[in-house]
Amino acid sequence: MKNLFFMKRKLFSLLLAALLTMAVLGGCGSDGTGESSGDNSSMESVKDSTEANSEESSGNSAEANSGEPVYGGSVVVGIQQDIDSLDPHKATAAGTKEILFNIFEGLVKPDKNGDLMNAIASDYTVSEDGLVYTFTLREGVKFHNGNAVTAEDVKYSLERASGLLDGTPLISSLSVLTSVDIIDDKTVQVTVGSANTELIYSFVAAIIPAGSGEDASGTPIGTGPFSFVSYTPQVGIVVKKNADYWQEGLPYLDEVNFKIVNSPDTALMEIQGGSIDIYPYLTDSQANELKSSFRILSAPSVNVQALFLNNADPVLGDVRIRQAICYALDKDMVNDFVAGGNATLISSAMLPTLQTYYVDLNDTYGTGANIEKAKELMTEAGYPDGFDLEITVPSNYEFHMQTAEVVAEELKAAGINAVINPVEWNTWLEECYTNRNYQSTICAITSDMTPGYLMNRFQTDSKKNFINFASAEYDETYQKAAAAMDSAEKAEYYKQLQQILNDEAGSAFIQVPPITIAMNPKLAGYVFYPVYVQDMSTVYFVEN
Question: Per-residue pLDDT tens for 381-401?
Fold first, then answer.
């Protein structure tokens, strides 16, 4: 199996070299933008979750097996990174949040169609001025320890997450909360300092038992369809069925083991050997290798992949150099080689599925390589002979590793000596994301269902601004977008933000990759979401 992997890798490299030669000689330059369907821009639709999950949508439900669902059984889900925290208010990595989605719930939660559904809250209202949210708690919701969820638990959770408890906001979007008041046993009123039409999405923040967040060594307790069993660093997390889950009929499985598999070739061997039942985020080549014996499912992702550039780097601090990199990339080729042509090409940090807010800027740099323009800008910036560029990549993500291989060769065609630096996930998280100690990196940032989630990270002072992008115009425009109550006005500001980020070449944005899943053919019920989650509550074994 290992030999097969390296044979495929060698073939990939040979084909890459051949196509790059043709691209350079032929001056290929496409302006194709890719296609995307679906509209997740609705900011008002909130469903009762029981109703929402009883519906089936052929567009994002992976149903292909006509057998009847069977209750019981356990599955192993391969994941690509260790978690960064079992505390739902402190977890930052998308790979952590996709797992904790099964354990914790908020007052509201996302559904498979991109809308919000009522969860721990059965209903809510917002005052006309947008400053007061009143939540009615659902009857019969219990924590995994058997205790009923109370208004005190909600008050504690929101005060802790917003910083009202100790002055330290754990979820930045909730820092606008000025008070959380208990009206009666089933009613909680939240007051905010400024109105924001996107704030309701922040109430997906986990509700936990009052006081439990202070016990760092305690067992995570939520209200989700699965309860925590165990966690072993670098090994994985095991969860079991919550028999008291408030949503009737879910979950089907008795147990789910989220198993950490850091090596792509190890993952392939384990999938083919039967020790992993579900494995997400395959590359096109991996999917082709597995399709004869596994169900391969695919849908648009909510990830924005880019060659992220550290704007504080001495070389990359020059906007002309960053623009030269954007011109040197052939995104069409990256899409063809790594995503099988199924990605959506982008030029800024906004999901095309958020159609109301998205603006197509692919014409600025083109989606094919413009080597002549790249060299012209490099010469103007004082680098006529090119420069060295280190691309740090989390090695456990084969999709990013393959992207880096293609990108590095493309940049060399423009005289940029790109070298790939593969690192372990924890190293990437600490050095690149937290310490910002890198030159460039290929990875992906993920989104929730709001346009602000992706755009707020590029404010100069944002803790999530790991590319060190600094623009007073951007900061001012973002504040206008956040404050705008009119949807058309808000959309216009978000389009301006994309334009600024694109013109300044804050990073070289590449694509929104597809999510491609390998699943044991005995399983069904997997549902794709417009947020980064692995919802195991709907997965079940099929009766033969």
Answer: 999 999 999 999 999 888 999
If one counts every other C-beta atom within 10 angstroms of the C-beta of residue 488, the result is 8
DSSP H or E stretch at residue 189: strand 187-192
DSSP of 23-73: HHHHT---------------SS-EEEHHHHHHS--TTTB-----SPEE---
User: What's the pTM?
Assistant: 0.75
| Paired strand residues for 125 | 134
Find the distance separating the first CA and the last CA of the chain, reported in whole Å.
30
Angstrom distances, CA of residue 104 to CA of 73, 98, 100, 182, 293? 22, 11, 6, 22, 34
What's the pLDDT tens digit per position in 420-441?
Answer: 999 998 899 999 999 999 999 9
CA–CA dist 508, 324 (Å, integer)? 10
Taking the C-alpha atoms of residue 357 and residue 366, their distance in angstroms, rounded to an integer, is 21
Distance, in Å, from the CA atom of 437 to the CA atom of 310, rounded to the nearest integer, reads 9
Residues 383 and 328 sit within 8 Å (Cβ to Cβ): no
Residues counted in the chain = 544
Cβ atoms of 84 and 96 within 8 Å: the answer is yes
* Cα–Cα distance measured from residue 115 to residue 137, given in angstroms and rounded to the nearest whole number: 19
Radius of gyration of the chain (CA): 23
Pair 68, 530: CB distance under 8 Å: no
